[in-house]
Amino acid sequence: MVRVISVEAERFPIAGTFTISRGSKTEAEVLTCTIRDGNAIGRGECVPYRRYGETMESVQAQIGQLRSQLAMGLDREALLDAMPAGAARNAIDCALWELETRMSGVSVAKRLGLTPVALETAYTLSLDEPGAMAAQARKNAARPLLKLKIGGGGDDLARIRAVREAAPDSRLIVDANEGWSDDTVAKNLAEVADLGVALVEQPLPAGKDAMLATFKHPVPVCADESLHETKDLAALAGLYDAINIKLDKAGGLTEALRLRDRATEMGFSIMVGCMVGTSLAMAPAVLLAQGVDFVDLDGPLLLARDRKPGLTYHGSLVSPPDATLWG
Question: Catalytic site residues (predicted)?
């Protein structure tokens, strides 16, 4: 039987405005790939990201270019060779994982040998002036793990201090989004260490991060924009202490699992993160994140409206996906 492939562009409003150093947005723009084989249906959601040269139109076109091969039964292993890492491959790969589950009756978790549990996720504070970020932190001070979006210039340390004062009991992750420089990175890391920061993400621009090998890190430094898939790991050894795996960067759960396992073998700490998407995008990532060091899967918490059914969040605890959602 020939499979039927469709792609739908969807928009979900963000609660307020989400701001990082590269700009602001008020809605999550996602693409959902659906693959139907008889009565079995698999879905996968991706978030095209302009930082990597992706748009809604370009990613939709990428999926369309593979339509005939998918219709004739292209599988996940062949997909890795047929398409580069990125949002398009992620949507297809996750749809194929779920399609396999619907056809076999065996859940993704079971196929991975998992008995998944609820995970503690970070909650992200949008980039703003120090006082406004302190207000965000105060509102969420009961959350055990907060992630700060910074990289907005000279006020970064003031932002971190303001958040620390407003949420003294929370662990902090600082995401610089490539916003620091060779001249500031060592000093900034020393100062955030004194503030009890647990992890700093991507302080320097991808490809311009050699400076990180020249000094001992007082806080673990995590690669985000510098890492997409497994082949990138060798170049990160000696620069970074941790990596942030996102399905939209790795190009799906299949590659992300390999990336996680190889990075663990190499001694990296692991974070599983996300773009701002819905529960459908987070669901496979929750399975990927079982047992990792840091979890940042708060996308649905940042939305004014999520899919129904969606993931269940109790405070900062996110439960594994129900079969009615994915997998």
Answer: 149 (proton acceptor), 246 (proton acceptor)
Chain segment 235-288, per-residue pLDDT in tens: 999 999 999 999 999 999 999 999 999 999 999 999 999 999 999 999 999 999
Which tokens belong to 116?
A: 């998944």
| 306 labelled ligand-binding | no
Exposure pattern of 35-64 as b/e (b: 16+ CB <10 Å)?
A: bbbeebebbbbbbbbeeeebebeebbebbe
pLDDT tens-place string over residues 124-149: 999 999 999 999 999 999 999 999 99
- Please tell me whether the overall predicted TM-score, pTM, comes out greater than 0.90 for this model: yes
On whether 81 is known to bind a ligand per the annotation, the reply is no
The full set of domains in the chain, from first to last, is 4-105 (3.30.390.10), 119-318 (3.20.20.120)
201 is in an annotated binding site: yes
